[in-house]
Design goal:
The protein is mainly α. It has one domain. It is built from five helices and two strands. Strands 1-2 form a two-stranded antiparallel sheet. It is elongated. The structure holds zinc ion. Zinc ion binds next to loops.
Length: 90
């Protein structure tokens, strides 16, 4: 899993450097730790590359909601967060 991510990071960095990058890429999130399903997000390539390079996710994607950034980073769905919170409260 780590190897795959590292390869993707390198690939995207290369595309951005050479100007060959498409405006968006399909990015597979890690599996959601609540429901186990992963998701595919259409993500703008340049911010994704900046995030991979170490920029804070909220700086790379300032116009995204917190929920969407969380989905990108951890794979946890907004509805699964809500379900977890409800479970903790009850
Ligand atoms: Zn989920």
């Amino acid at each position: 899993m780590f190897g795959w991510t590292a390869a993707l990071r390198e690939y995207i960095a290369h595309l951005v450097e050479t100007g060959e990058a498409l405006p968006t890429v399909e990015y597979g999130t890690p599996p959601c730790s609540f429901c186990g399903r992963d998701s595919v997000l259409v993500v703008p390539t340049v911010p994704l590359a900046r995030w991979f390079a170490g920029e804070l996710i909220q700086d790379a994607f300032p116009d995204w909601t917190r929920e969407r950034r969380e989905l990108l980073k951890t794979g946890i769905h907004p509805e699964c967060w809500n379900a977890m919170l409800v479970e903790e409260l009850s």
